[in-house]
Specification:
This protein has about 425 residues and is of the alpha/beta class. The protein folds into three domains: about 150 residues, NAD(P)-binding Rossmann-like Domain (Rossmann fold, 3-Layer(aba) Sandwich); about 160 residues, Dihydrodipicolinate Reductase, domain 2 (2-Layer Sandwich); about 80 residues, Alpha-Beta Plaits (2-Layer Sandwich). The protein contains 15 helices and 17 strands. The strands form two sheets. Strands 7, 8, 9, 10, 11, 12, 13, 14, 15, 16 and 17 form an eleven-stranded mixed β-sheet that branches. It has a six-stranded parallel β-sheet with strand order 3-2-1-4-5-6, sandwiched between helices.
């Protein structure tokens, strides 16, 4: 074993960063044995140096992150500060000064992954980011390496633990959205401002990363269709149960049948109870992968939290350190194609539409005519009426999103349609 330690700079020492530092200290001997050399925490960049950080030598703490990554003796920079800047500048500076990088920054990688990969390759350095998508779940490396010889056609997953906890609570207890959100906040699953989670910004960034890796093309955050889950109601869950389904916030990345384009989207959807993703409870994550040779695979586990995320970071750290010792680099950027990302209007799936209509003869015929005029085939219809009002639930066969949107706009113009209560896609069949 080499006696001279590999030096690590830690950028950020919050929930994840402090766990990374703790594990590096408590598992130092094991890490050294697995890598073939000791690993030394050589510096920790923070914003508030006065805060007490248990187990970290105060002499290592600095507020000058730029100076830390420029030191020249740093072998690996671990970036867990999040956001776009200064993280982007610090990572590129690290490459320029001889360090490889391990990052958990999904927002930055979704927006600027191509530029960061190019910078890493230009300086013959590694960029690893297993922790950016699904916490402790080994996912990025299997997609980049284990399935490198296969053709992945679809990736569908639950990649945000906060929203899965909320939807699971609504499903299992009948709670409304706000009640379930309040419980998630009280338990620490949701932030004080939950917008990034419940409006699916977090999941959309992860979808962009997954689509790019799975299909070997460039997918940016702006390419991902995003729809939050704040409008999901107890009535939606009741309808889902009648269909033998539940509701999940799904990130779905697909390759077109002809292989000429891809799509990436995040939105709530009904999914059959028989599908493996339907059984994912609480704050857990899971990703379901479909490929030509391997068939169907599912990756499951805790998707957030300090210790699970730190586990993924440390796994990358071990890999990068091994590369340092051998003089090798990892798989690098695999986006060797330039497949276009198709608009949401071209996505084809089934739909569940709930309408509030007048309870009188001829309404169903009017509604059916509108669907037919827009080329959307009806699978089933269920109607319930009382006191002059009725609810009409229509489940379609597969249709394009554009056709469905045209249908809904036409339905809104009917005098007999009081309103469109909900529209939910049906996936996983």
């Amino acid at each position: 074993m080499r006696t001279r330690p590999l030096k690590v700079a830690l950028l950020g020492c919050g929930v994840v960063g402090s766990e990374v530092a703790r594990i590096m200290t408590t598992h130092a001997d094991d890490l050294a044995a697995r890598i073939g050399a000791p690993v030394e925490l050589a510096g920790v960049a923070v914003r508030r140096p006065s805060k007490v950080r248990e187990g970290i030598d105060p002499e290592l703490v600095t507020t000058d992150a730029t100076a830390l990554v420029k030191r020249g003796d740093i072998d690996v920079v671990v970036e867990v500060i999040g956001g776009i800047e200064p993280a982007r500048s610090l990572i590129t500076t690290a490459f320029e000064h001889g360090a490889s990088v391990v990052s958990a920054n999904k927002a930055l990688l979704a927006q600027d992954g191509a530029a960061l990969h190019a910078a890493a390759e230009a300086h013959n350095r590694d960029l690893y980011y297993e922790a950016a998508v699904a916490g402790a779940i080994p996912l990025i490396r299997p997609l980049r390496e284990s399935l490198a010889g296969d053709k992945i056609n679809r990736v569908m997953g639950i990649v945000n633990g906060t929203t899965n906890f909320i939807l699971d609570k609504m499903d299992s207890t009948g709670a409304g959205y706000q009640e379930a959100l309040d419980e998630a906040t009280a338990l620490g699953y949701a932030e004080a401002d939950p917008t990034a989670d419940v409006e699916a910004f977090d999941a959309a960034a992860k979808a962009a990363i997954l689509a790019g890796i799975a299909f070997h093309t460039r997918v940016r955050l702006d390419d991902v269709y995003r729809e939050g889950m704040t409008e999901v109601t107890a009535a939606d869950f009741a309808s889902a149960k009648e269909m033998g389904c539940t509701i999940k916030l799904l990130a779905i990345c697909e390759r077109a049948a002809d292989g000429g384009s891809v799509t990436a989207r995040v939105h709530p959807a009904m999914i059959p109870l028989s599908h493996p993703l339907a059984s994912v409870r609480g704050a857990y994550n899971a990703v379901f992968v479909e490929s030509d040779a391997a068939g169907q695979l599912m990756f499951y586990g805790p998707g957030a939290g300090g210790a699970p995320t730190a586990s993924a970071v440390l796994g990358d750290l071990v890999a990068v350190c091994r590369n340092k010792l051998s003089g090798a680099t990892g798989p690098g950027d695999s986006a060797y194609t330039q497949l276009p990302v198709s608009p949401m209007g071209e996505v084809v799936t089934r739909y569940h539409i709930s309408l509030d209509v007048a309870d009188k003869p001829g309404v169903l015929a009017q509604v059916a005519t509108v669907f037919a005029e827009h080329g959307v085939s009806i699978d089933t219809v269920r109607q319930q009426g009382k006191d002059g009002e009725a609810s009409l639930v229509v489940v379609t066969h597969r249709a394009s999103d554009a056709s469905l949107n045209g249908t809904v706009e036409a339905l809104r113009s009917l005098d007999t349609v009081r309103g469109v209560a909900s529209i939910m896609r049906v996936e996983g069949e």
